[in-house]
Amino acid sequence: MELDFISFSVDTVDPELYEKTRKGSNYEKVMANIKRFLDLKAKRKAQFPVVQVSSVKTAPHKPGMDDFIQFWKPKVDRVRIYIEHSAGEHPGSIETELPEFPKRLPCHKVFQDLVILWDGEVAICNHDWTREKDQLIGNVSTQSIATVWSSSYYQELREMHLTGHVEKEQLCVHCDHWKTFYIPDGLLGQLHTREEG
Q1: The overall pTM is greater than 0.90
Q2: What is the DSSP string of 66-105?
Q3: Measured between alpha carbons, how far is 89 from 140 in angstroms, rounded to an integer?
Q4: What is the Cα–Cα distance from 32 to 92, expressed in whole angstroms?
Q5: Using CB atoms within 10 A of its CB, is residue 165 exposed (0-12), middle (13-18) or buried (19+)?
Q6: Over the stretch 119-170, which tens digit does the pLDDT of each residue have?
Q7: 3-state secondary structure of 196
Q8: CA distance 193 to 30
Q9: What integer best gives the mean pLDDT of the chain?
Q10: How many C-beta neighbours within 10 Å does residue 100 have?
């Protein structure tokens, strides 16, 4: 199984703000790890994986957003700025008004994305940060990515999305993000690519 896309959530290039908003993390270590990853990709002269670095446009991050974009744009393939989400304290809910749909359609994330947390635990998507220990999906420290990706849990989750019955997965019940795959452009926020010049 080949990796074709990877995204690093960094949020800011201000070390003090980074450590304030991403408590328990280490700015210098994160930056060194991303640099090493980019160096390895360059050494291989590989087109893939496409590398993205992202930020969420929250009040503390807004003042440094231009600096963030300018710093990363020459280094990675994509810089993604997400709108603030999790309205009403529910992961995946979006404050921006989205169109109504006559029925629930499948979220593409369960077919395309695999999110790995700092300790190797696997989450459904980037909105899945409140998962309890008794609801764990898998851990890539002890299992291969392919094993987790093709697990019975993922097969059942995909079937839920295909049939529009997501009630058994509480994360998905109140999530609005699936709608972004069915609107023109399919993009909320901003996307900057190295090719823009």
Answers
A1: no
A2: HHHHHHHTTTSSEEEEEPPB-GGG-TT-BSS-----SS--
A3: 28
A4: 30
A5: exposed
A6: 899 988 888 877 776 677 899 999 999 999 999 999 999 999 999 999 988 8
A7: helix
A8: 21
A9: 88
A10: 6
